[in-house]
Amino acid sequence: MRAKLWKRAFISTLPVLAGYIVLGLGFGILLRVAGFGALWALAMSVFMFAGSMQYVGVSLLAGGASFLTVAVTTLMVQARHLFYGVSLIDRYRGAGAKKLYLMHALTDETYALVSHSHVPDFVDEHSYYFAVSLLNHLYWIAGCMLGSLAGAIIPFSSEGIEFSMTALFVTVFVEQWLSEKEHRPALIGVGGTLLCLLVFGSESFLIPAMLLILLALALARRPMERKEEKKNG
């Protein structure tokens, strides 16, 4: 049963494996170009495990940013995880000792898999969530270390590497769109984000967009549930 659990988790995380190796390579290279070696890459990938913030963190480290600047920037960049956490309270309830790691390992891609995966009947759901989270974390660590080591050996131009994070988000969105018949949540997310981008600008749109999307999804929840009940019943 344990082997089946890890096999299922591995198959589910294959798209993340492909993305995280590439993204991790990019981060490791950028970090190396900024003058920070493999130990920095290992520590940041293990203890931070925040893809977009790690990319931002390279410039903060290189620029000698203060602790307050780092703290505020991290809050702004990673604020969306507050909303992820709220929506996973029921799924992670009763996870016991696994809960702390599940909280630490929550990324955009892990959230997408956990919130949309159908857990097999033959496995414990919290063990499955743990396996998915751990595998994704290991992929990221491997990618970061490979990038740092490659950056020390091979000369690279780091121009455009930061776009790899955006590319992964687009890939996850497309995969979910194709796998789900109900597209209203995706449309709400895209529409709310574009609206807030136009109103608040690229520097300040993230938190207002999350709040707007959360409100819109809360209002749309019952109509979507009724539609699902009507279809199944």
- Taken from the alpha-carbon principal axes, the silhouette is globular
Q: What's the total count of β strands?
A: 0
* Rg over C-alpha atoms, rounded to the nearest angstrom: 19 Å
* Tally of separate helices: 13
Can you describe what's shown?
The chain has 13 helices and no strands. The longest helix is centred in the middle third of the chain and has 29 residues, at 125-153. The protein is globular, with a radius of gyration of 19 Å. It has helices at 2-12, 14-33, 38-48, 51-62, 67-78, 80-87, 89-92, 98-104, 108-116, 125-153, 163-179, 184-200, 206-232. The chain is mainly α and 233 residues long. The protein has 2 domains: 2-160, no CATH class; 181-233.
Q: What's the arrangement of secondary structure elements?
A:
Elements: H1 2-12, H2 14-33, H3 38-48, H4 51-62, H5 67-78, H6 80-87, H7 89-92, H8 98-104, H9 108-116, H10 125-153, H11 163-179, H12 184-200, H13 206-232
Helix pairs in contact: 1-10, 2-4, 2-10, 2-11, 3-10, 4-5, 9-10, 12-13
What's this model, at a glance?
This protein is mainly α and 233 residues long. The chain is 79% helix and 0% strand. It has helices at 2-12, 14-33, 38-48, 51-62, 67-78, 80-87, 89-92, 98-104, 108-116, 125-153, 163-179, 184-200, 206-232.
Task: Looking at this protein, list some descriptive labels.
233 residues, mainly alpha, 2 domains, 13 helices, 79% helix
